[in-house]
Specification:
Keywords: Repeat, Signal. With about 375 residues, this protein is mostly beta strands. The chain has a domain of about 250 residues: Neuraminidase (6 Propeller). It is about 0% helix and about 65% strand. It has no helices and 30 strands. The strands form eight sheets. The chain has a four-stranded antiparallel beta sheet with strand order 1-30-29-28, with no helix packed on it. Strands 2-3-4-5 form a four-stranded antiparallel beta sheet, with no helix packed on it. Strand 15 and strand 16 form a beta hairpin.
């Protein structure tokens, strides 16, 4: 493919960006950014340093650009997730920590509801090193899963430390199931035929794909290596496929053989953090954004991410693009044009004040 797929449209003023969420209200496109920290003047750089008592900026789209118009408090922001239940609209947030150092990893995750033209707090959750939420439904049942936890010397959990799944009771989310895992990162759900899958990523305890048995989620397959970050599922020609990102090792494509997921192709080595699957008129594309290699004490900021195109049974690399410790990517269509927003979290010098980017996606 000779023409570039991505065209930069806008640099978004962000600091330590970790996650993105976008939605429409009254024909207006909005974007929220979870931010981990801002730099503290005079302090040496460190990817786990900085001031985490920070806010999540809210943008609205005007033409082909986002304009910040508001923000809400989100200390140590790791995630923001938008979802709907019937006519009700919700925004839920997760923060890994609070403070300027030393940090407290026992936090409150907040669920907001859109009421009277504003986002109002609806429910609070006691969280510990919270990473990511995932809202999903099975039939009429509505679930909200929180990935959380760390295992660090000197860090004590006074809040529940295991990753958890909550179920909607009509007014609030109640604890439904607790998952064994010490350092949760992400959830991804997928429906294939009559099989509902839920994947859980964990940094130290091994990751897993679970299956709904009508009463709870039970393990279908485990991935025991450390470094799990995320999964993505899709269907092609009636078959179920899965991509698994491991920050420490590799990004791998799997095919479901009816009983388990079988490794088919490796799409890159260490450093992968997140994925974005895009279905366009021209085909299926996979965006792999890359974060760091090395260690938190001596990180190497990854400066390049990739776009792959589906060929029918494998992915082919079609484009690379500049990023800076990228942590998330989301795609959306507005006014007949497809866009890709990418969150960048660190500069090469390990400073948080690095812009995120909005692209036009021409494929």
């Amino acid at each position: 493919m000779s023409e570039r797929i991505l065209t930069p449209i806008q640099a978004l003023a962000t600091t330590g960006a970790r996650a993105l969420a976008t939605w429409q209200l009254d024909d207006v496109r909005y974007l929220a950014v979870a931010q981990l920290a801002r730099d503290i003047p005079g302090e040496p750089p460190h990817m786990n340093g900085g001031d985490s008592d920070i806010e999540a900026p809210l943008f609205r789209m005007e033409g082909e650009r986002f304009v910040q118009f508001d923000a809400f408090q989100l200390s140590g922001g790791e995630d923001v997730e938008y979802f709907e239940i019937g006519a009700r609209r919700f925004l839920t947030t997760a923060g890994i920590r609070q403070g300027r150092g030393p940090y407290d990893l026992n936090t409150q995750a907040t669920l907001y509801e859109w009421r009277n033209g504003a986002w109002e707090p609806h429910q609070h959750f006691a969280a510990f090193a919270a990473k990511q939420w995932r809202a999903f439904a099975i039939g009429e049942r509505q679930f909200l899963a929180l990935a959380q936890g760390v295992t660090l010397d000197g860090v004590d959990a006074t809040h529940p430390r295991s990753s958890r799944i909550f179920e909607w009771n009509g007014e609030r989310f109640e604890l439904f199931q607790t998952i064994d895992g010490l350092w949760g990162y992400d959830w991804n759900d997928f429906q294939h035929g009559d099989m509902h899958l839920l994947a859980y990523s964990d940094h130290v305890s091994g990751s897993a794909v679970m299956r709904w048995n009508g009463e709870q989620f039970v393990t279908l397959q485990r991935f025991e290596e450390k470094g799990g970050r995320t999964f993505r599922f899709f269907e092609a020609d009636g078959e179920c496929w899965m991509v698994h990102v491991n920050l420490l090792a590799h990004t791998t494509l799997y095919r479901f053989d009816g009983e388990r997921f079988v490794e088919t192709q490796q799409l890159g080595g260490p450093g992968g953090r997140e994925l974005c699957l895009i279905e366009s008129e021209r085909g299926r594309y996979l965006v792999r954004v890359c974060f760091i290699t090395g260690t938190p004490q001596a990180p190497v900021v990854e400066r390049e991410s990739q776009i792959f195109e589906w060929t029918g049974n494998t992915f082919a690399l079609v484009e690379t693009f500049d990023t800076s410790a990228a942590t998330a990517a989301i795609s959306f269509t507005e006014g007949g044009t497809r866009y890709l927003a990418v969150a960048n979290s660190l500069s090469a010098e390990q400073r948080f004040g690095v812009a995120s980017t909005l692209y036009r996606f021409d494929a």
